[in-house]
Structure formats: C-alpha cells, structure tokens
Amino acid sequence: MSKIPYFGNKKMAQQAQLVNKLANNMEAVAGAYQHFFLNTWKFDDKEYLKVCNSLNATDAEEFLMDLRKVDLIREGKIYPHGLAKYFMLDDIPAINQDFR
Asked: What are residue 91's phi and psi, to 5 degrees?
C-alpha cells in the first residue's frame, strides 16, 4: 500500500521493502530446509559422549561440549538477531550489550 499515491510515506515504503525482503528470504530458507522439517530423525549420541568424555580439562574448557553449561537465556535473546542478520544479508546494528 505504501506505493499507492497518497498512502503512506517514505519510511513506510522502506519498512514495507524490509518486510518483503525478510518474507522472501524466510520462504527460501523454509524451502531449503523442508526435507529436514518434514521427516523423522533418529539421533545417536554415543560418539558425541565418547568425545566429551575423552577431553582433558584444557580442551573441555576450549571446546564447550557440555550443553548444560550453555546460557540458554542469553542465547535465546541473541538468536533472533543472528537469524535476522544472516537471512536479511544486511548490516544490522549490534544488539544491546546487556545480552553478552
């Protein structure tokens, strides 16, 4: 609607373009991952556990393998920003430092 004369303004037109770009990118991503979304998967973590148990203290600190130590609240806050930056393929302003 922002392209129709007398409706909207320049800022609304820019926002509409951004939303259209996001929608197109998300549609492309959904198509690319459709196989993974629509099929059933069985995961075996035996090898992962072997690697986790074989790490010495230095390696365990360097390579965070224990997912119980991941700050899921922090990751949940910054994840949408990363998705937007990746899928929009634009420079997006840095997120608030409170998330780090």
From this structure: -75, 120
- Rounded Cα distance between 1 and 8, Å, is 7
Whether residue 49 is contained in a domain is answered as yes
84 and 49, same structural domain? Answer: yes
Rounded-to-5 percentages of helix, strand, coil across the chain: 65, 0, 35
Report the domain count for the chain: 2
Residues 6+ apart with CB under 8 A from 94: none
Q: pLDDT tens-digit profile of 52-67?
A: 899 999 998 898 888 8
SS (H, E, C) 69-100: HCCHHHHHHHHHHHHHHHHHCCCCCCCCHHHC
Query: SS in 3 state form for 60-75?
Result: HHHCCCCHHHCCHHHH
